[in-house]
Design goal:
Protein name: Leucine-rich repeat and WD repeat-containing protein 1
Keywords: Cytoplasm, Cytoskeleton, Nucleus
GO molecular function, one term: chromatin binding
Pfam family, one: WD_LRWD1
Subcellular location: Cytoplasm, Cytoskeleton, Microtubule organizing center, Centrosome; Nucleus
Shape: globular
Radius of gyration: 28 Å
Helix content: 10-25%
Structural class: alpha+beta
Strand content: 25-35%
Strand order of the largest sheet: 1-2-3-4-5-6-7
């Protein structure tokens, strides 16, 4: 990639000139440019520029503040454009090319007609008739409908305070977005975006007339680029833009591996809407919780059956919760749609009330969400959340700082993508009747027809009780494939860190898929089948040898396999079993063989636990691997330290590690988080005693309006981003808690 300099601009212009101010045509195509590579002060000197070619780059949006007053033609084809509202400063544009931008939607096409008032030629076609209809006829109809809602329910006869004005704006915008319907369903997102602008303009006009009525005629429309999102969401510089849907259709279709991604759009019948306490919610088929399911018991279900009376008692103690959402705020989708949830949603937000006598030193709770509720019910405290993972950074792709604040969570029949900074549910994928137990991120190379370049993209795999692996492309709002990995439920999914197209599942290890070509996947299943007589609960690939060995934490012990693909045999038996000292304390009432938590804290140090152990072992993978196994292929782990943890018999309270910061975190049955700094732990000499936690973070005791605090639930899963800026904990009572590091 070449740096944009004055010399480069003069070389790329035609006809040749010696002054930037005289350039009329400029070709900056195929330079792998991103937004931050475009120097606004330098480009703004091109006051006579009429034609600009930026095709074949990697632009996701245009830089803010770019002023090109004479620009008539712009070519942005074959880029990664997502936010077309950043083009709003180029108001003189008459011709625009934006083909081969995977994430540009139908809604974006219509937005451009409004944002660029002189646009006539779009992707080589004359759109004058359609554009004029949207600018005048459509806009006038929407204005009348918005005004009718205002005069009916929101008209002011007094000057409101700043606080009341903010509440009025939120309520008015939410009500209009969910009541004003105009045009075909394919324009639903455009209509919401447009009426948001109309709402704010109307409020501004009304308030202005109360102060200086004569100023109304001089009021300008607020910038459309900043209004669809809340202030907090607008500042969120991430790839996951709310209100995004697939290019060809408003309804995102779930494409199976045997179907082409170029299928024609099939109209889907909308689900009936019901209004409860002022909120609009889409009816979805009810599903049973994991414990209530009539399906055959999985190992997880069987072990947690004994805890059912306690959970029933907890449910009786909890009173119904009032919805804190504004009218029409809930927008969950049915079927196989990957939906965008419109800000400023914090689905069923809970107010935080810390009662800990000792304030957390490094982390504080900032958000508690109920975003996996059945039928959008705020009273749902039975859906169990099972897995969460932060999205990975894209290697060598100029990721902006903070992109790892997006975390994926699964539980019940849905998968959510949450922005940890704002607490907003950015995207949601739902499959009625499914119950998701596991998910995993990976980065693969994507190619598109007519474009020979390969570009990395993030994909998300999810599995559940049906044994199907769903493959999602969150950035494109698409569930683009699925395949059956097992006839049994899937509790484990793990991508190889070295080969992003190798997926390990608990019953089929591994699964290989060739990558993304036009968003269609080809599969080659069962490269290996690792034989075991127990159900895997966690899978780890040693950081030093991820292509040759695999460690599986199972309900009957810890097993090691050789996964090198240069051998002829497809089926592999256990290479060795690793045992722990706690096994010697087993009796008929205590079984310590179920390893329900495991993770590498360094390349050689592993943390693992049993659900009845009451402690966490730190042991050396290098020294344990070097020991010679006996005839039964059994070797005892070389224990480095033992960390104190909660004494509970509740299984599947998984631990998480943050190798970059040397931290281990594990939740317990009371909603607490036990944190350990491994550097501190290893400095303690062996004394035969367990090492206490570095810090125990109490359950934040979220409170609903007019209700008491919610008791601490079991923390099923924990995830940390690589820099430990955020920590996410999932509970068995349908609550996801986001903790944030306190900056010193």
């Amino acid at each position: 990639m070449e740096k944009i300099t004055e010399k480069l601009l003069l070389e790329k212009c035609t006809p040749k000139t010696t002054k930037l101010e005289e350039i009329k045509t400029l070709n900056l195509a195929n330079l792998c440019l991103r937004r931050h590579d475009l120097p606004v002060p330098l480009l703004s000197r091109l006051c006579c520029l009429e034609q600009l070619d930026l095709s074949g780059n990697r632009l996701q949006e245009m830089p803010p503040g770019l002023s090109l007053p004479s620009l008539r033609t712009l070519d942005l084809s074959n880029n990664d454009m997502e936010d077309v509202t950043t083009l709003n400063s180029l108001t003189t544009l008459e011709e625009l090319r934006i083909e081969d931008n995977l994430y540009v939607t139908i809604t974006d096409n219509y937005k451009l007609m409004i944002l660029l008032p002189k646009l006539r030629i779009y992707n080589g076609k004359d759109i004058s008739t359609t554009a004029n209809h949207m600018r005048f006829v459509n806009s006038e109809n929407l204005r009348k409908r918005v005004l009718a809602v205002w005069e009916t329910s929101f008209s002011l006869h007094y000057v409101p305070t700043a606080e009341k004005l903010a509440t009025l704006e939120r309520d008015f915008v939410n009500t209009v977005c969910h009541t004003v319907k105009y045009g075909p369903s394919s324009l639903a997102d455009y209509t919401k975006w447009r009426v948001c602008i109309k709402c704010l303009f109307l409020i501004l006009c009304h308030i202005s007339t109360m102060f200086v009525p004569s100023l109304v005629s001089g009021i300008s429309v607020p910038s459309p680029a900043k209004r669809p999102l809340s202030n907090s969401a607008a500042a969120c510089d991430v790839l996951l833009t709310p209100q995004k849907k697939t290019r060809a259709s408003v309804q995102v279709q779930d494409i199976s591996p045997r179907k082409s991604s170029r299928q024609k759009d099939v109209p889907q019948k909308a689900e009936p809407l019901t209004s409860t306490t002022g909120s609009s919610a889409i009816r979805t088929p009810s599903t049973h919780t994991r414990i209530q399911s009539k399906a055959p018991l999985t190992p997880r279900k069987a072990l947690r059956e004994r805890s059912q009376p306690q959970q029933d008692l907890a449910k009786k103690m909890l009173t119904p919760i009032e919805s804190a959402l504004q009218p029409g705020a809930v927008s969950e989708t049915t079927g196989k749609e990957l939906s965008s949830i419109h800000p400023p949603l914090n689905q069923f937000p809970l107010h935080l009330h810390c009662h800990s006598t000792q304030a957390p030193v490094s982390l504080e709770p900032v958000h508690v969400l109920q975003c996996h509720s059945k039928q959008d019910s705020p009273d749902d405290f039975s859906t169990q959340l099972w897995a969460c993972a932060f999205q990975p950074l894209l290697d060598n792709c100029g990721d902006v700082k903070g992109e790892t604040r997006i975390v994926a969570t699964c539980g019940g029949e849905s998968i959510c993508l949450i922005d940890c900074d704002t607490g907003l549910v950015m995207k949601k994928y739902k499959v009625p009747g499914e119950e998701f137990f596991s998910l995993a991120w990976s980065t693969v190379l994507m190619s598109r027809e007519g474009n020979g370049g390969l570009r990395p993209c993030r994909i998300l795999a999810a599995g559940g009780k049906r044994g199907l692996v769903k493959l999602l492309h969150p950035r494109a709002n698409m569930a683009y494939g699925e395949f059956r990995a097992s006839r049994k439920p899937l509790s484990v999914l793990r991508f190889s860190s070295h080969q992003g197209n190798f997926l390990f599942s608990e019953w089929l290890l591994p699964v290989f898929f060739s990558g993304l070509i036009s968003l269609v996947v080809s599969y080659k299943l069962s490269l290996l089948v690792l034989e075991t007589n127990s159900a895997p609960l966690h899978v780890c690939l040693p950081p030093a040898t991820p292509d040759s060995q695999l460690i599986a934490a199972c309900d009957k012990g810890l097993l090691v396999y050789n996964i090198q693909l240069n051998k002829n045999t497809m089926k592999r038996s256990v290479e060795k079993e690793i045992t722990f000292p706690v096994y010697e304390m087993e009796d008929k009432d205590c079984n310590y063989h179920t390893i329900d938590g495991m993770g590498f804290i360094t390349d050689e140090i592993v943390a693992s636990k049993s659900h009845m152990q009451g402690s966490i072992y730190l042991w050396s993978w290098k020294l344990t691997k070097a020991k010679r196994a006996n005839k039964k292929k059994v070797v005892c782990a070389v224990i480095l330290a033992e960390l104190q943890w909660s004494r509970t018999d509740i299984p599947y309270l998984s631990l998480s590690t943050c190798p970059c910061k040397g931290y281990i975190v594990c939740g317990d049955e009371r909603g607490r988080l036990w944190t350990y700094h491994v550097t501190d732990a290893l400095e303690v000499k062996k004394s035969g005693k367990t090492i206490p936690a570095t810090e125990i973070l109490d359950w934040p005791s979220p409170v609903r309006k007019g209700k008491g605090p919610v008791e601490g639930p079991c923390i099923n899963s924990v995830a940390m981003d690589p820099d430990l800026k955020y920590l996410v904990a999932l509970s068995d009572k349908n609550m996801a808690v986001v903790w944030r590091r306190i900056e010193s």
